[in-house]
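Researcher: We plan to redesign the surface later, but first we want a full-length starting point. Tokens attached.
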């Protein structure tokens, strides 16, 4: 698709070269300010028009008559000269050769010269060496084709003209000058315009002279290629950078033209490409229809902040560029402050949560028992802090009778809790079941101590157990605290030595409720010191001490 554009460039370049000739070095005139050579391809039998273009510097001299024009080989039949133009009315192969026109100065020396080489052809109606290319795209409009020529002197008048396509097809007048509103690939071809001229003067009355011109029309399939364009950055953009840090600015362009070139300039001088040993360079990558050129500044310094960086896109259809600058990033105090404050809050919240979770028990005990900040209600109608109930664990392990007695003693004597114990506080002769139930109802907690060994018949009575559990769990009147023994794992896995307490003689449905109680694990001699975790845990689950309550005082007095 891009071939035509390239061809245009190539052709115009060659034309330029042909016109300029090989400069004065090869010129036969020593003092020429201008020397040109050109080739003229003329079809046999047609007019040849040689027009000397007087160099600008000599025009006034020429008009003043200080320099004169001289043609060589101008005389002869069928040759016509008027000033700067020589016309050979009907070219024959004999006319091939060189013709020159010189400007002769006052000294009699040529000051400017142009040499024309006439080449005659006859095999076709045009020669490939002298066609004027035009291009258009399928479905798009095509400009009209040019038939007339500027070089023909006014002494000749054009009668009419006819277009031929590829020499053999004569096109009718509807073709006019070949404008197309929507081109088709079939419209491609070499179009030759044949013009007929007559000479104004009576000298050659009635004679008609021909001159042709050929235009090659190429209709490209597909649509007009995109005009190359820089998509980003935008002109005048600035990029915020940190001093000393690397920066990459990517310039993106839409390019379909293989002759387009995308590059970076710093203050109007070129930035090196792909040389990553330099402090500033650019590299580029191409994808279908797109190109990126990345400006890489390895370490931003003051110099870079003062520079203009320009991304430039050069293509045969034009030049576009965008300029950017770098700016030093300013510290953003506001967001940092906000983040800081939020961060401090989050950290504080996390720390407080962790501390609370870790020290919850100590904190509650301190507040409740040492500072007396509790909601203990001595008028709740209860007279015991806890009812202690033993039950046989079916795992075989349990708190020994001796340890249980220790626990009861410490709770009562060290911590001043009032406990209801079956073998002490349930009077013999009472109806066991009712007495147990009544005692549990009068207690603020039900402590269930798992026991490995057999128990006294009354303590272990299934009835008292079930009614106690019922009262504690189903009616939810009395919170349940489970005291279980540490399970010694022989397999060596010390990870989970708290086995779920399974109780004999408790229906499956109530086992679940038992498991929902607060569990405290007795770790034998480890739990004996009053500072151990066992006592803290147990006290935590117990109600607030009733030291100042009337019952407590009474009990203390009674003990004395
Ligand atoms: C042309 O020549 C005349 C003398 O012959 C001179 O006065 C005049 O300045 C010249 N003109 C130029 C443009 O040199
Ligand atoms: C024009 O004249 C030169 C000599 O002055 C000669 O060499 C050349 O061949 C001639 N050209 C033609 C076309 O006759
Ligand atoms: C060409 O025409 C111009 C006027 O149009 C006239 O002055 C001139 O003499 C003519 N040249 C020849 C060679 O007939
Ligand atoms: C153009 O004019 C010439 C000469 O008068 C004549 O022979 C030719 O037929 C004309 N062509 C058209 C298309 O009128
Ligand atoms: C014009 O003619 C040349 C050969 O003379 C040919 O190569 C070229 O394809 C023709 N152009 C078109 C558009 O047909
Ligand atoms: C890169 O730039 C350095 C410094 O100007 C130069 O010495 C070196 O030859 C360059 N390398 C290439 C591959 O152009
Ligand atoms: C250009 O250079 C930079 C920095 O060295 C690198 O990150 C990037 O990948 C390079 N891009 C291309 C297309 O080579
Ligand atoms: C660009 O010009 C500015 C000011 O003229 C100068 O400070 C800076 O160093 C120049 N940058 C480059 C890369 O030459
Ligand atoms: C950068 O370009 C802008 C606008 O094109 C111009 O005003 C400014 O002076 C330029 N700066 C430098 C350092 O060249």
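Model: Full-length starting sequence:
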């Amino acid at each position: 698709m891009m071939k035509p554009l390239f061809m245009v460039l190539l052709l115009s370049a060659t034309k330029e070269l042909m016109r300029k000739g090989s400069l004065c070095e090869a010129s036969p005139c020593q003092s020429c300010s201008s020397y040109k050579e050109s080739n003229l391809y003329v079809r046999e039998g047609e007019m040849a028009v040689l027009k000397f273009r007087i160099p600008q510097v000599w025009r006034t001299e020429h008009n003043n008559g200080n320099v004169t024009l001289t043609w060589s080989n101008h005389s002869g039949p069928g040759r016509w000269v008027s000033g700067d133009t020589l016309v050979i009315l009907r070219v024959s192969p004999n006319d091939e050769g060189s013709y020159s026109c010189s400007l002769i100065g006052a000294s009699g020396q040529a000051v400017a010269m142009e040499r024309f080489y006439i080449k005659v052809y006859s095999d076709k109606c045009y020669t490939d060496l002298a066609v004027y290319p035009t291009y258009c795209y399928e479905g798009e409009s095509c400009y009209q084709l040019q038939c007339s020529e500027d070089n023909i002197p006014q002494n000749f008048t054009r009668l009419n003209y006819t277009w031929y396509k590829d020499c053999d097809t004569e096109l009718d007048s509807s073709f006019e000058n070949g404008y197309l509103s929507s081109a088709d690939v079939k419209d491609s071809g070499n179009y030759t315009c044949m013009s007929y001229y007559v000479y104004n003067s009576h000298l050659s009355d009635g004679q008609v002279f021909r001159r042709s011109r050929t235009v090659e029309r190429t209709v490209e399939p597909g649509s007009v290629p995109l005009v190359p364009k820089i998509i980003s950055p935008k002109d005048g953009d600035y990029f915020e950078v940190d001093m000393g840090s690397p920066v990459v600015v990517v310039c993106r362009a839409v390019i379909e033209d293989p002759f387009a070139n995308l590059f970076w300039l710093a203050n109007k001088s070129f930035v090196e490409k792909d040389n990553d040993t330099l402090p500033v360079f650019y590299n580029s990558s191409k994808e279908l229809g797109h190109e990126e050129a990345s400006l890489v500044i390895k370490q931003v310094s003051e110099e870079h902040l003062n520079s203009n960086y320009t991304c430039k896109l050069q293509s045969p259809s034009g030049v576009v560029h965008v300029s950017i600058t770098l700016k030093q990033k300013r510290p953003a105090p506001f967001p940092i402050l906000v983040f800081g404050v939020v961060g401090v809050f989050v950290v504080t919240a996390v720390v407080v949560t962790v501390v609370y979770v870790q020290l919850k028990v100590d904190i509650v005990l301190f507040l409740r028992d040492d500072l007396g900040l509790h909601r203990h209600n001595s008028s709740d109608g209860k007279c015991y802090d806890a009812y202690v109930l033993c039950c046989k664990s079916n795992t075989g392990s349990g708190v020994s009778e001796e340890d249980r007695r220790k626990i009861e003693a410490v709770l009562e004597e060290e911590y001043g809790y009032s406990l209801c114990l079956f073998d002490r506080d349930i009077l013999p002769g009472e109806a066991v079941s009712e007495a147990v139930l009544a005692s549990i109802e009068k207690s603020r907690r039900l402590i269930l101590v798992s026991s490995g060994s057999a128990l006294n018949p009354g303590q272990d009575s299934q009835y008292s157990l079930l009614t106690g559990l019922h009262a504690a769990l189903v009616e939810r009147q009395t919170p349940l605290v489970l005291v279980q023994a540490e399970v010694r794992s022989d397999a060596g896995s010390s990870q989970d030595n708290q086995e779920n307490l399974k109780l004999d003689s408790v229906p499956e449905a109530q086992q679940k409720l038992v498991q929902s109680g607060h569990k405290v694990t007795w770790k034998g001699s480890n739990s004996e010191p009053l500072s151990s975790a066992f006592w803290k845990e147990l006290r935590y689950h117990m109600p607030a001490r009733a030291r100042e309550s009337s019952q407590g005082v009474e009990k203390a007095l009674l003990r004395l």
